[in-house]
Input
Amino acid sequence: MAMIPVLLRLSQEGHAADTAAAAGEHASASPFTINGGLILWTLLIFGILLLILAKTAWPAILKQIEEREHRIQADLDAAARANADAQALLAEYKDQLASAKDEAAELLAEARTAGEKVREEIVAKGRVEQEALLQRARREIELEKDRAVADLRREAVELSLAAASKVIERNVDSEADRKLVTDFLARIPAHKS
Output
């Protein structure tokens, strides 16, 4: 860095000498006139500055650029991983959703099957109960019919005995007489209804 003021001083001294020499020529100089000394010193200073920058500033600039490039690459890699994770989660959720839909359909089918089975069981149980009620009603009807027939026979025996006793004018009340009328009525075929 101490070299820069020295170079500038040298450049100014060289420029002063060139200026003095050019002062005589100034009257004939145009803006497009090439000054060899000025070009030489400009190139020399540019080269020295380029070397100084190459030794000091250029590595720092390259390091910053490389760090930035690594950060950007790391961010891109993280974004790619996050995208891949999101895609995997999306695929997993889609699989779970499809599985849940399949399970729901299966449960619905099982519920329908179970409902049909319960309905059939209830209908079958109702039929069995209906048949049992019909059988019980038929038995009760038969029992009542048998009782009514027995009551009618007893009544017929009593009426027959009463009529016979009036006819014969004697009291037919003995057990033998009852037996005789009961046997007679038993031989009469039962009236079917």
Q: What stands out?
A: Residues 141-187 form one domain. Residues 57-168 form the longest helix (112 residues). The helical segments are 3-26, 36-55, 57-168, 175-187.
